[in-house]
Amino acid sequence: MRLRLLILPLILSLGACATRGAEGEAATPGDPLEPVNRQVLDANLAVDDAVLRPVALGYREVVPEYARNRVRSFLDNLSEPRIFANNILQGRLLDAGHTTMRFFFNSTVGIGGLYDVATDFGIARRTGDFGQTLHSWGVESGPYLMLPLAGPSNTRDTVGMVSDGFLNPISWLLPFEANIARTAVAGVDLREQNIEGLDALRSGSLDFYARLRSVWQQRRDAELGRTGDAGDRIDVLEDPGGGLNVLDDPGAAR
């Protein structure tokens, strides 16, 4: 079972929270759990400053960029069956075919996924997660959530994130320890990719919580709007709104 399943008790408890702040002020639209979410973010930042960011910096320092790229390609290839399953569930059969070809070429010619030869062949990576699938089925996003360690999400995407662990047959084939190791390595790799992005976001925001929420929501909206796109992907912390600065920060007026 994936580590992300540990967030389920938190989600159940958050669902029982009131939709108004502790001082009786109206909650931000779409974020009725803001007081709790802010506390979770504070805890996440404490863990990040003490553990995650130093580990990511050490990973970058010790592991050459070439090797990090091989690790990233390998992990991406392991997620292709999950993308395939969601392509099918969303009725995106052409994308499912492309994902199948990617997995085949990268697993064989690409030496188990260490090299992304499929992209070189013109077969760009598709998107596909169960949060997208639920969106395509008409499920509402629900309130914004700040998850422990996992970061920004909402109730729909949280259910989707957990469900993705069951949709990927590779998760069934790997032993429990291997799944934990895979999740840990993926987390370190993701944090390493975002060292500069998160640093800039934190230093350039009067209200980091509000800015992070805004950037995440815009990015997720853009992803959901291009579910049929031919592999066009957004960088992990790219702001689709562009041009946002501290003065545009929703929290700047707080």
From TrEMBL:
GO biological process, any: intermembrane phospholipid transfer
Alphabetized Pfam families for the sequence? MlaA (PF04333)
Q: Which UniProt keywords apply?
A: Lipoprotein, Signal
Asked whether the keyword Repressor is assigned, the reply is no
Basic and acidic residues bias (residue ranges)? 227-236
User: Would the keyword Lipoprotein be found if you checked this record's keyword annotation?
Assistant: yes
Q: Got a GO cellular component term for this one?
A: membrane
Residues of the region (Disordered) are 227-254
Q: Where is the signal peptide?
A: 1-18
Family of this protein: Belongs to the MlaA family.
Q: Specify the protein name.
A: Phospholipid-binding lipoprotein MlaA
Organism source for this protein?
A: Muricoccus pecuniae
